[in-house]
Design the sequence.
């Protein structure tokens, strides 16, 4: 028998994406279909999204929500079963999902509360096609109120919340309690109150039937003050219901053998990877790079340790390395990368922006991918690196530590090493890891072994989708 689950999120690739959250939300439905679960994805109808739905129809009229009409549209897009919360006064705006030209949308609390109300309506049977889920799966703070609404209404539908990144907590002034549809008794430290304010993420964490996060290591880290960011106690209190389930990679999109953006290659014809390298150097206006060509595809933020790259760079360049960067983010870090490119013309090159096809060409053409994050719930780019024979150099944190086996002499000898894992996350450790990377790159046998072991590693959704399915079954059974 097929189970039914409603996924509630603010992003879903390929329709709307600002980060890894979207990739996961977009990949889960296909992965779960193979496990006997039909997943419909509810997201806001941001500007232009409704037009992307195939066979769109109105499935529910929600009346007035936060000062304007709201309805739920259903349809297909990119092979996904999509439900859109169509509320033009909240979502039909020029700008990103969370912010416009002037910064964060001031009504973000209401916008995402509306999404959660729509989710609750679906679980209450509001859809005219008669579909009702057994489980609601909420993602991050934007969907955090959905489990709370179910809990306070006494709904029989079970709920799961996944933490993709605890740095974003949906903190809102306490006087919005009523506007967000929460009962007065919810405002206490055991529920949604958070240092005198409201946190919608916390609301989800205390009311959902189960809590998951996107790697086993991050699940452990979240219970510690240096990673929990104020919520460590809340998470520790739910330790018995906490599951670390590693994200997978969408292998239909990320496979070097069948990637339309590159000269395809596989573990058996790595000479064709070299063509991608040459093309990438040319595209970035770089000269010959005698050592490893490292890539960075990332938000340029403190979390991602981009400042450490700046500090470790002189040594790496001197040892023969090169660096190609694609990303955008904090102006200071964008500037740091641009300064590095000016200092090392031909060896360091930077593209500020967001460019999905270019990111594919970079994974195909790079020798190594750098992910020196200070914290990393799961991380996807190190897994793309594994698949593309682009050796990951990662900090020993979260999902990075769970997916890369460091090239110490024993792991190398056993043929199990897939990359370099460094600790602590500081410039010195990164510099040492890059020095080691140069040594390994200069040793063809070792390098080939690293690439092969990485390309063999399963990074798809097979294992993790089974874990989610087991979780849903346990809750709804
Ligand atoms: P996070 O969600 O914290 O940003 P992840 O590694 O989980 O980090 O996911 C980031 C996703 O966004 C990956 O799919 C990565 O390839 C993509 N990405 C990040 N920056 C860019 C960029 N500038 N251009 C293209 N893709 C990018």
Sequence:
């Amino acid at each position: 028998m097929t189970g039914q689950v409603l996924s509630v999120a603010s992003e879903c690739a390929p329709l709307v994406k600002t980060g890894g959250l979207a990739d996961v939300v977009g990949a889960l439905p296909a992965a779960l279909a193979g496990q006997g679960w039909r997943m419909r994805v509810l997201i806001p109808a941001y500007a232009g999204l409704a037009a992307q739905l195939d066979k769109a129809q109105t499935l529910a009229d929600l009346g007035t929500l936060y000062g304007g009409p709201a309805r739920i549209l259903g349809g297909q897009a990119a092979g996904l079963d999509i439900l859109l919360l169509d509320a033009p006064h909240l979502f039909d705006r020029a700008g990103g999902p969370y912010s416009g030209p002037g910064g964060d949308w001031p009504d973000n609390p209401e916008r995402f509360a509306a999404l959660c109300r729509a989710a609750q309506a679906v679980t209450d049977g509001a859809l005219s096609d008669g579909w009702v889920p057994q489980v609601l799966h909420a993602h991050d703070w934007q969907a955090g109120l959905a489990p709370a609404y179910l809990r306070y209404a006494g709904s029989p539908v079970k709920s799961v919340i996944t933490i993709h990144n605890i740095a974003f907590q949906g903190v809102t002034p306490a006087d919005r309690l009523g506007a967000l549809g929460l009962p007065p008794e919810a405002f206490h430290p055991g529920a949604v109150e958070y240092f005198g304010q409201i946190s919608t993420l916390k609301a989800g964490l205390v009311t959902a039937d189960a809590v998951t996060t996107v790697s086993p290591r991050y699940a452990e880290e979240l219970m510690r003050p240096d990673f929990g960011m104020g919520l460590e106690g809340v998470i520790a209190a739910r330790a018995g219901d906490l599951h670390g389930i590693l994200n997978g990679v969408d292998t239909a999109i990320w496979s070097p053998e069948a990637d339309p953006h590159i000269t395809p290659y596989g573990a058996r014809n790595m000479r064709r990877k070299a063509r991608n390298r040459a093309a990438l150097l040319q595209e970035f206006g770089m000269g010959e790079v005698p050592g490893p060509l490292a890539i960075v595809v990332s938000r340029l933020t403190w979390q991602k340790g981009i400042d450490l790259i700046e500090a470790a760079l002189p040594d790496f360049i001197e040892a023969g390395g090169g660096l190609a960067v694609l990303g955008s983010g904090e102006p200071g870090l964008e500037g740091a990368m641009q300064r590095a490119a000016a200092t090392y013309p031909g060896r360091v090159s930077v593209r500020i922006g967001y460019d999905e096809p270019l990111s594919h060409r970079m994974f195909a053409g790079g020798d190594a991918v750098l992910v020196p994050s200070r914290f990393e719930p799961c991380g996807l780019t190190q897994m793309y690196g594994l698949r593309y024979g682009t050796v990951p150099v990662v900090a020993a944190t979260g999902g990075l530590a769970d997916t890369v086996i460091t090239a110490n002499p024993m792991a190398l000898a056993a043929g199990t090493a897939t990359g370099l894992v460094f600790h602590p996350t500081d410039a010195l450790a990164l510099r040492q890891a890059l020095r080691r990377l140069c040594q390994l790159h200069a040793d063809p046998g070792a390098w080939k072994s690293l690439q092969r072991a990485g390309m063999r590693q399963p990074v798809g959704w097979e294992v993790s989708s089974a874990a989610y399915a087991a979780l849903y079954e346990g809750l709804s059974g």
In short: The two ends are 12 Å apart (CA to CA). Residues 210 and 471 are 8 Å apart (CA to CA). The first strand starts at residue 3 and ends at 8. The chain has two domains: 3-248+461-476, 271-456.
